[in-house]
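Minutes, methods subgroup
Present: GH (chair), OT, SY

1. OT presented the first of two proteins processed in the latest run. Sequence and structure tokens recorded below as shown on screen.
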Amino acid sequence: MILLAIDTAAALCAACVFDSGAGSERGRVVLDIGKTNSKVLAFDAGLDLVATYDTASISDGTHLDTAHGWAFILASLKEIAKRFRLSAIVPATWSPP
């Protein structure tokens, strides 16, 4: 069985794909979207960082430019998918209590 695990309690939103038959994680992608900078990080099954993409977030101080953010996320995921097998993409949000 392939399980999708989403961690929204961490400081960074993360999703991983876990293969219960093999007893191992396939990898994970972390989306860190902030007011000033945004990052997409890819980790392999051993949780070694294998790809990182970043950009300055475009904001008027109150709102992020979502078109810029979306284009950045898609471009980053396309580059990651050229090198690694992506089996799931899951959006998640996190905010401090």
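2. SY then presented the second protein from the same run.
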Amino acid sequence: MVSVDVTNNAISTINIFPNPGNGNEVNIIYSDNNTGDNITFSITDLTGRTVSQTIVVNELKGTNIYKLVPPNTLPTGMYFVTALINNNPFSIKMIVN
């Protein structure tokens, strides 16, 4: 599990698992202090190409889990999972075996 602590007034923690993963899905655990926030979750490869992206509305304060499923299984390599909230991006490295 990889963790990033973010000190703004919305997201306080982001984790992903499994990491390394198999490229079929990634679970994103995040803590958001606000309800109604639009959060864009995306997966990008090392060239910066977005391979998966979705927008969710945070409905619960506190810890939440979102399962991001790419449209196709990701090939072996390194990717970045990014959460964009209030125009602030927070990225975590993800390895696919």
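Chair's summary of item 2: Residues 1-8 have pLDDT under 50 and may be disordered.
Next meeting: continue with the remaining queue.
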